[in-house]
Amino acid sequence: IEATGRYADRFGGQLVLVTGAGSGIGRATAFAFAEAGARVIAVDRDAEGASRTAEMSRLIGAPEAWAEMVDVSDEQAMEKLAEKVATEYGVVDVLVNNAGIGLSGRFLDTTPEDWRKVLDVNLWGVIHGCRLFGRQMAERGQGGHIVNTTSAAAYQPSRALPAYSTSKAAVLMLSECLRAELAGQGIGVTAICPGFVNTNITSTARFAGVDAAEEKRRQQRSARLYGLRNYPPEKVADAILRAVVRNEAVVPVTPEARGAYLLS
Ligand code: NAI
Question: Which ligand 1 atom lies nearest to the CA of residue 202?
């Protein structure tokens, strides 16, 4: 972990909740807020990953950090989390809806079950987070910020990722609508759109209806691509903190995401 000190104490005393904080971009984001003095709630369905993030966040500089094992697509579990957070930790100042899963496969090969899984986590998870924590922010009346991790896939059509891209496009639009709705209450909303970032998501993504030879070619292609880009999650985390500080609306991160955004 590199301590840049760029946002030293900028988030001192603030309460930040990050979902999907057990690895990748979410973990790097929790660390960046910890380094900036925030109290951190690391939420993930992977209990071990979340605990490790919370433990490390304390070492990095978070005055307090907690791990919560929650599946963001589970409405009741999210409601329980929102209640617990409000009672035990306080109202969240910054919410980062970042948990997400990948799914590759042509549209005609994907099943309704595939679609449900991706939309349940990538879209419904964000809806639950925005609804529950956004309401607490609005009721408190002291502003706040919501960051939703979407993707360059949200505005860049691809034959390989129809379900994933659709889920991310929905989150992009939700973020923009919510930004308009909550602006009057001093609550900012940002859609973060990374391109290719080196994390687990590529290795854990499921592939629908793609034959083994094609899958192997795809993996070789993406290994070249990821190898070339080599974009670290810490840089996405940095863009997230900057977006909160500057109250930015849509933030394409990574060079190819910026390029595709300009063309979209
Ligand atoms: P990752 O796989 O390293 O991290 C995702 C985390 O979310 C994991 O810790 C996982 O356990 C957690 N998670 C998954 N489903 C969950 C659920 N239902 N409830 C709670 N936690 C859950 O992947 P990465 O790359 O850090 O992904 C973070 C976000 O960034 C995702 O929304 C992803 O779609 C998005 N993204 C990633 C890009 C990349 O190239 N890595 C590019 C564009 C967007």
Answer: 41
